[in-house]
Amino acid sequence: AEHRAPARPDATGRRFLIAAFGDPGHAFPAIALGAALHRRGHAVCVQTWKRWRADVEREGVQFAPAPEYSVFPVTGRDLTPYEAAVEATRTTVPLLRDFDPDVVVADILTAVGGLAAGVERRPFATLIPHVLPTSEAGLPPYSIGARLPRSALGRRGWALLQPLLRRGEERGRDELNGARARVGLAPLDYTHNGISRDLALVATFPQLEYPRRDWHPAFKVTGPLLWERPAEPVEAPGGDAPLVLVAPSTSQDPDGRMVAAALDGLAREPVRVLATTNRPGQPLPERVPANAKVVDWLSYGATMPRCATVVCHAGHGTVARALSYGVPVVGAPAAGDMAENAARIAWAGCGVSLPRRMVTPRGIRLAVRRALADGAIRSRAGELAAWAAANDGGTTAAAELERFAARVAPSRAS
Q: What are the start-end ranges of the H helices in 239-337?
């Protein structure tokens, strides 16, 4: 997980195809990476869901629509996720032939990118827009929200689960190998075989990565890849009390449970509250305390630097954006990798992890009080902000891809 200074841009210019799953937590880092490569003089095509076409093209990057399918099993669907990926590969191969990339970069949830790259014999890298999800003996299982053990006994306890985790990983390997066979590719004998062993960009803070004994040399921690849609400026409630931003997930909590609990719990606290529903066009809460304001969308980049803490569901993008400005996080995970992210911020000392059952007015009130009062948390968040200021994730990731392309693909200028 060692950070290296970025190299200068490759003067010959390269061609990169970035294939990304369409949820914001995956599409946004892909757009950030594409924009960084474009600024360095490379030709870039981002293949993702059509809802992001205008955003991709606004960055000066070519857009290609991605086949849209679920990466998780869905009851009532005819195709499994890997069967859908096989079908999507057959429609993606023509894009590779047309765009002719030097390197294909596939988001970790986008199996079709790696499959199509294999079919066309193109160099392949993986984009991991969060902490590394692979397991290791002595570490807690990924995504359950458990902290790194502090004793040898704790490490031995988690090690006992390794055979069970290994069986699950082997099943995933075999399922992807089945998809590889259907498109004419040989099987891979290692687990997590959707992650490139030539280059994997781990787009997170190194401070959020647990220490590992077997860190693969092809896995490079770049720092977060941050991007957001343009938004009109939003005025916060008046006054000089600490500003608390409540920023729920764009894909979770459709009933607004977190926002409602935060408005109630912080109504009589000496703070100002700016909450966003992150659901443009939907009705806003009717009852809003005097110290609060609720909007349906806002710019994190314009708002977070003014904040004293951010209450969120601990999606990696929101966590990384807050920490890049030195703002402590109250993470209340809802689904997916959110529990893992909440555990990492608590372990790293830059925020507070709030279990789902504690997303109540009292729970949020106490968590916010702690985030505001704990000088060590504020200091640690400031350290991550200083690291982010000196280590731009887009620049570092683009430089890694340039080095990779120079190593594996002939120069087009030769």
A: 257-265, 300-303, 316-324
